[in-house]
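Review session, final week

We close the course with one last complete record, chosen because it touches almost every idea we covered. It is 5-formyltetrahydrofolate cyclo-ligase, a protein from Microbacterium galbinum with 198 residues. Go through it on your own first, then we will talk.
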Amino acid sequence: MSNEVEHAKRALRAELRERRALLSDAQRDAAASSIGERLDELVESLGAQSISCYLSATAEPGTREFVTRAVRRGIRVLLPVTRADGLLDWAVANDDDDVAEGLFGLPEPTGEVLGPIAVNDVDLMIVPAAAVDRSGMRMGWGRGYFDKTIGSMEKCPPVYAVIYDSEILDSLPREVHDQPVDGIVTPTQTLSLSQTRR
C-alpha cells in the first residue's frame, strides 16, 4: 500500500514540476506580485507580529518580495534552514538580499541560526507545497521537513501553503506522516479550510 502511495506521489510531483517549469518569467513575476498582496492581507487580517515563511526557489510561487516588505513593516520573519537530520533550524530574516544555497540547492538565509523550537513562537506559518487538496491535505516535495515541523509543534499556529491555482486538487495520495494545512494562498485567492488537527 505504502509503495503505491509513494509511487503516485512521485508521479504527481514530476508532473507538477514540469508544469511549473513551463511558466514564463512574466507569469512568475505576476504570480509573485499577486501572492505577495494576498500574504500581506493574510498577515494583517490575523494580526500576526511574527511569522515563518521561506525563500522561494525559481520555480516556486514567489515569496521573496513579501518577506522583504514584512521585515520592513516590523514583522519578525523566520526562514527555514535545512539540516541533515531532517529537522529545520530557523534564521531571522533581514531586508537585504543575502542568500546562501542550502542542502538541496534551495535558497536559505545567511543570518544567525536559531534552533528548531524557534518556530514555536510564530503567529502564522507560510509553507511551500507541491499541491494541496480540497480537504487541506498538503503534499510537499518528498523530504518531510515541514510535515515533521508541523507535526511536532505543541501549539501550532495557522498554516497556509503557497501554490499556483492549478495545484489545488480534488484529492491527494496520503501517508500517515502527512500534515494538513489550514489554508491556501494562490495568485487569485486565499482559501481558509476548516481543520480539526489541533
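Two points worth writing down before the exam:
The chain has a mean pLDDT of 87.
The CA atoms of residues 147 and 178 lie 6 Å apart.
Good luck, everyone.
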